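Figure 6 in text form: structure in, sequence out.
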C-alpha cells in the first residue's frame, strides 16, 4: 500500500511539474515577458517531450534499443497532415479536424509499430537497433517518391511526378514527393501540446505501474526467468513497442500542424538520436527525467543563440557534464554520499 502511495505521489509530482510550467508560461505571456523566440519554442518543446517519454517506454522500461523512433513520428506527421489538408474544405471546425488527425496519426503509427515489431522484436541488442534504424530511413524515402492529388473524381496517385497525376484543372496536389505537404492548417498550440503531454504521461505512467508494466520490466530484467513463469515475451514487448510508436505518431501530428510545409527529410537519423539523447540524459527509465531533459535540451541551443560562436560548444559541454553527472561511477558515489544524506536528513526533519 505504501509503495502504491509513493508511486501515486511521484506521478502527481510529474503532472504538477507540467501544469506548473504551463501556468508559468501563461503568466509570462500575460505580462509581456515572454520573447518571440520562446513563443516559437513552446510547441516544439511539447513535441519533443512526448517523443522522449514515448521512447523511454521502449528503451527504459522494455530495455530495447530503438533507433527508428523518427520513422513512427514521420508516419504520424504525414498521416495527420494529409488528413487535415484533404478535409480542409469538408470539415470546417479546425479543432475537430485536428482531433481526428491526431487519432488517425496515433492509429497509423501504432499499426506500423505492430508490423515492424512482430519480426523485429525477436532480435536483440545491436541487431534490433540496426533494423529500427533501417525502418526510419526506409519510411522517409518511401514518402519521398509518392505524389498524391485530389479532385472531384477522388484521389490520384503517381510515383513519377505531379504532372502525371492526371487530375482536373481544379485538382489539388496534397503530397508532392520530396517537397512534402504544404499549406497545412496551423492548429497546434501550447495548450493542446500540454494536454497531449499530460495524456501521454497518464498512459505511460499507468502502463508502467500496471500488471502489464511489471511484466514488461520483468522481461527487461531477466528474460529467461520471466519466460519460465509463463510471461508471454512477444506479447508484452510488442505492447510496449506499439504504444511507444502510437505516441510518437501523436508527436508527429502535433509537429506537422505547427509547420507551413512538411518534408520527410526532417525525420532523419539525427531526430532519432536526439530523442535517445533526451532519454539517456534524463535517466533511462526515468519518465520525469525525460520531460526535464527534453525541455532543457530543446530550449538551450535557442537561448544560447546570442553567443553565436560558442553556442554549440556550450551545448556540447552541458551534454558531457550531464552525462558524467548521471552515469560516471565517481559521480554516482558523490551523489549517494552527499545528496542521499541531504534527502535522508530532510525526511527525518519532516517526520
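Output sequence:
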Amino acid at each position: 500500500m505504501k509503495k502504491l502511495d509513493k508511486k501515486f505521489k511521484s506521478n502527481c509530482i510529474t503532472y504538477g511539474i507540467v501544469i506548473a510550467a504551463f501556468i508559468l508560461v501563461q503568466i509570462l505571456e500575460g505580462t509581456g515577458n515572454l520573447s518571440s523566440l520562446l513563443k516559437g519554442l513552446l510547441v516544439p518543446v511539447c513535441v519533443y517531450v512526448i517523443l522522449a517519454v514515448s521512447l523511454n517506454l521502449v528503451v527504459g522500461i522494455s530495455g530495447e534499443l530503438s533507433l527508428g523512433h523518427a520513422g513512427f513520428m514521420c508516419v504520424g506527421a504525414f498521416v495527420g497532415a494529409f488528413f487535415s489538408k484533404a478535409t480542409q474544405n469538408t470539415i470546417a471546425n479546425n479543432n475537430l479536424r485536428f482531433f481526428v488527425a491526431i487519432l488517425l496519426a496515433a492509429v497509423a503509427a501504432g499499426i506500423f509499430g505492430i508490423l515492424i515489431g512482430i519480426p523485429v522484436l525477436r532480435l536483440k541488442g545491436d541487431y534490433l537497433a540496426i533494423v529500427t534504424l533501417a525502418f526510419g530511413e526506409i519510411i522517409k524515402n518511401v514518402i519521398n517518391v509518392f505524389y498524391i492529388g485530389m479532385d472531384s473524381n477522388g484521389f490520384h496517385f503517381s510515383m513519377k511526378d505531379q504532372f502525371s497525376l492526371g487530375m482536373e484543372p481544379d485538382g489539388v496536389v496534397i503530397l508532392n514527393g520530396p517537397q512534402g505537404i504544404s499549406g497545412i492548417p496551423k492548429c497546434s498550440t501550447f495548450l493542446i501540446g500540454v494536454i497531449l503531454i499530460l495524456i501521454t504521461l497518464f498512459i505511460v505512467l499507468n502502463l508502467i505501474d500496471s500488471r502489464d508494466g511489471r511484466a514488461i520490466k520483468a522481461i527487461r530484467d531477466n528474460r529467461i526467468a520471466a519466460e519460465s513463469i509463463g510471461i508471454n515475451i512477444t506479447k508484452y514487448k510488442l505492447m510496449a513497442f506499439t504504444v511507444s510508436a502510437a505516441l510518437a505518431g501523436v508527436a508527429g501530428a502535433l509537429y506537422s500542424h505547427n509547420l507551413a510545409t512538411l518534408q520527410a527529410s526532417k525525420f532523419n537519423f539525427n531526430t532519432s538520436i536526439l530523442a535517445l539523447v533526451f532519454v539517456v540524459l534524463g535517466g533511462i527509465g526515468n519518465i520525469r527525467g525525460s520531460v526535464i531533459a527534453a525541455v532543457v535540451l530543446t530550449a538551450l541551443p535557442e537561448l544560447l543563440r546570442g553567443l553565436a560562436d560558442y553556442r554549440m560548444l556550450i551545448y556540447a559541454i552541458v551534454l558531457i557534464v550531464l552525462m558524467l553527472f548521471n552515469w560516471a561511477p565517481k559521480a554516482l558515489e558523490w551523489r549517494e554520499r552527499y545528496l542521499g544524506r541531504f534527502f535522508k536528513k530532510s525526511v527525518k526533519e519532516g517526520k
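Caption detail: The radius of gyration is 22 Å.
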